[in-house]
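Final paragraph of the annual report: two paired records, presented back to back.
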Amino acid sequence: LRDLSRAPCLRSLEQQVLQEVRGSRLVRSLVARADSDPDVRGTLVLVHHPPYTNSSITSDELHVQRSFVPAFAAARKTLAMLSGHVHSYERYERGGKTFLVTGGGGGPRIRLETGPRQRHADDLFAGPEVRMFHYLLAALTPNGIEVEMKGLPKGEKRFETMDRFRLSWPT
C-alpha cells in the first residue's frame, strides 16, 4: 500500500468468455508479479461483484469464481478479495484467504438469506439479516493489516466498531 498506483482494481462486470479469459490472465499476471516482488508484503484484490454472498437479491458471481478466485487463492501474498455490489457486509475465510463483501456505503441495504436458503453458513460476521451502513478502516502494522468495520446502528448517530480482524502478512 506504500505505492497505491500498484493496487489493482479488477473489472468483474463482464460475463463473456473472452472477458473471463482476459481477467484470469490478468489476475495470474498481477499476483505472480506481486509474489515475486520482495518489496510487496501482501496483495489486496478489489472486484465489483462478490464471488460469494448470501444476498437475497443476487447470487454468487460464478464468473468471478472462475476468472479471479483460482489465481487469488493460489498466490502466496494475496490477503483479501474485497467486493461491493451487494449492499451489505459479509466476511468469509476460505483456504487461508479472506473474502469481504463491503457494499454498505449508501444504497438501499438488502436482506441476507438465513436458514435453509442461506448459501454460505461460514459468514464470520454474526450480524442481522439487514446489515447496517458501514465503512472499513485499515491500518498497516508490522504483523499485517488491521481492519475495522465501522457500522451505523439503526437510529444511532455515531458509527461503532462492529467487526475487527487482521490480515496477517504471509511468512
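The closing record of the year follows.
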Amino acid sequence: FRFNGVTTLDGYIYAASNEGLYRVPENGANIQDFSAWERMDGAHGFPEEYEVRSVTSFNGQLYLAIDDVVSRYKDGQLDSLYTEEGHEIRFLTSEGEHLMVGSYCTFINGQGQLRTCNGKVLFFDANDNFQLFGGDCVNRPRYGIEDQNGKVYYADDWDKYRIADSATGFC
C-alpha cells in the first residue's frame, strides 16, 4: 500500500494512494488509526478500483490524477478534465494562481523498448480552462510549483531545476 499525496479541503484530510482516495476528518479522528479513514468508492461517485497518483485542493475543489486522468471532485460528482494518450500524470500542485499539471510521456518503440518523449506542464485557471506553458523549461517534468507571486519552479529529469518568472516566461 503506497500513499502518493495528501491535501485538506472542507474539514477533511484526503490521501491519494495506489488503492484509491481516502479521507478522514481533520478534527476528532486519530489519523494514525487507519480504520478511521474512509475510502472514496462508488457510493461517493468514484470507480470501485482505481489509483490516485496525486491530489490537491484548488479553488475550493478537489483535483486528482486518477489512472492518468485529471479529474475534479465537487458535490459528489467526479468529472474528467484532461487525459492524453501515452502521458502519465506526474503531479498536481496548486500553491499559486493556477492548478499545475505535469505529465511524462512514455512509449514502446519498434524493438519493444520503453522510451520517453517530452512531457508537458498545463496551467488550469479557476474555470478549468488550461494552457500549455513551460516550453523551454521542462522536458521530463517531475514536479513544479507556482508561488504566490506567479514565479514558477520546475524539477525536471532533463534540466534538473529551472525557474521562470511566470507561467508564460522562459527559463
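The longest strand covers residues 114-124. This concludes the annual technical report; the extension proposal builds directly on these records.
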